[in-house]
Amino acid sequence: MSDQIKFIVDNLNKEPFRKNYNLITFDSLEPMQLLQILNDVLAEIDPKQVVDIREEMPEHTAKRMLSLLGILKYKPPGNATDMSTFRQGLVIGSKPVIYPVLHWLLQRTNELKKRAYLARFLIKLEVPSEFLQDETVADTNKQYEELMEAFKTLHKECEQLKTSGFSTAEIRRDISAMEDEKDQLIKRVERLKKRVETVQNHQRMLKIARQLRVEKEREEFLAQQKQEQKNQLFHAVQRLQRVQNQLKSMRHAAADAKPESLMKRLEEEIKFNSYMVTEKFPKELESKKKELHFLQKVVSEPAMGHSDLLELESNINEINTQINQLIEKKMMRNEPIEGKLSLYRQQASIISRKKEAKAEELQEAKEKLASLEREVSVKTNQTREFDGTEVLKGDERTIEEKKGISGYSYTQEELERVSALKSEVDEMKGRTLDDMSEMVKKLNSLVSEKKSALAPVIKELRQLRQKCQELTQECDEKKSQYDSCAAGLESNRSKLEQEVRGLREECLQEESRYHYTNCMIKNLEVQLRRATDEMKAYVSSDQQEKRKAIRQQYTKNITEQENLGKKLREKQKAVRESHGPNMKQAKMWRDFEQLMECKKQCFLKQQSQTSIGQVQGVYQNGLRALFKGLWNSNRILRNYKTLHFPL
């Protein structure tokens, strides 16, 4: 479980999630946060799943996640009852349910992205049969299925192109090269056209050249058709010759054959054919299928470099060493009975290989016989085409012509030669069977000799095997003792490590406490030294020393501050006493300002109505009032200065 959580945390901290979790913070997440992380991973696989689960009902969230997990072919562990538990755990965000899902998704993200992409186009919509009765719906459904099949084909082609090793850069280079060649050809055609235009009757000559090209193409087509017809004729002639040869052989076999020999030959042919059909051909077919499958796999894989080949060679060497080790272990564990069986198996394999070799020789002989028969028929046809008759001796020709059976001697010779070849093949079969029986006898005698020779070795091997079992049992006991001792030592080591860790922490605490105490002692020493100096200065009879004392300095500062406070209190008292007159003076100044503003307005209004003398009288009255107000103000200011700023 810890490895699973570590894998999940490592992948969530990478791109594209970048969560910055550790094992503790991830394990302490709430169920809603776990569900949101699961939804983020599903959204990375299928972008349609980007949802804030806080804004979605829990039932809808579980249904959506279950449907996507079903599309991705996730199989929860357990049976049907566990499936209900899985659904409930997915709804409530249970860790035992969410962790395996996250681990499975993060292991195969790229594969699941591809599967989710394909599911958008390949999940077939089931249309009820009653709706398919409508022609429009049926046609639409048929088009839908055709488009789905086309998508499958295009996707396969796209994947093959991706894995084929072709790069877009190479294709672009090829296209650019082809375009350059096209431009060169166009330019060349243009130059040729310009050169031809200077020739007289060039249109007629071009037309004749075009007709010549068409006739040459037609001639090539007719020659190809003629060759095909010749090949068909040749194959037909060969089939006719084979049928004729079979007819001749059957007539010859029926003319001078006994029922016993026919039955024996038929039985041999049946055995041979059954062996070829049941044993040889299936093995060859299976080997060809394996080879074809291997070649298809090689073709479908991308092009491999030198590093890939080196890696494959190293893997092959590792597998070969593992196979050799397993074979050695198997040989060490083999019983005497298995040793006997291995000998019989080896003998049977040798016999089967010899049987296959003889069957191949027989097949080659038959093929050779068939090829000779075909060659004979070809030669016969050639002689017939040459002079219309078969090549015979002079006497035989005349006798056969007289008897009216021209060609009988040649046919007789051919039948005798074919029967001789057939007898050779049968004799070869008999020799093969005799050789095989003799080989079996020799092998049995050899096996008995080897058994008698290996009997003391087997007896000694049994003793050694028993000793090996005893040693193995003793080794297992020692190993169990070692494991128990190692476990005890491991537990003691872990306890000692814990004690050492605790003592180290205690040592660090004591060390920090020591440094703190040392600093406090130094501070106290400094304070003590200052107190001692202060006492000496205070007790000293020297006035200069007393003045340097901190007590004297503090006393002086206290006195100065007390005097300053006394002055400030007196000043505060004076301000309080003069507050009323000052406020009255301020009111008088405001009234004076209003009066002057009023005089100004009056003066402006009466300027056009009154005479100059009247204006002067008003102006003089205003000035007198102004000077009177100024005099009162000056008197108040003098009183204020006397109160606040005494000499």
Automatic annotation (TrEMBL):
Main location as per UniProt: cytoplasm
Subcellular compartments: Cytoplasm, Cytoskeleton, Cilium basal body
Superkingdom as given in the UniProt entry: Eukaryota
GO molecular function, one term: tubulin binding
GO biological-process terms attached to the record: cell differentiation; cilium assembly; intraciliary transport; spermatogenesis
GO cellular component, one term: intraciliary transport particle B
Pfam families cross-referenced by the UniProt entry: IFT81_CH
Coiled coil spans: 137-246, 309-382, 454-571
Segments forming domain IFT81 calponin homology: 3-126
Signal peptide (residue range): none
Keywords: Acetylation, Cell projection, Cilium, Cilium biogenesis/degradation, Coiled coil, Cytoplasm, Cytoskeleton, Differentiation, Phosphoprotein, Spermatogenesis
Family: Belongs to the IFT81 family.
Function comment: Component of the intraflagellar transport (IFT) complex B: together with IFT74, forms a tubulin-binding module that specifically mediates transport of tubulin within the cilium. Binds tubulin via its CH (calponin-homology)-like region. Required for ciliogenesis. Required for proper regulation of SHH signaling. Plays an important role during spermatogenesis by modulating the assembly and elongation of the sperm flagella.
Protein name per its UniProtKB record: Intraflagellar transport protein 81 homolog
Organism: Panthera pardus (Leopard)
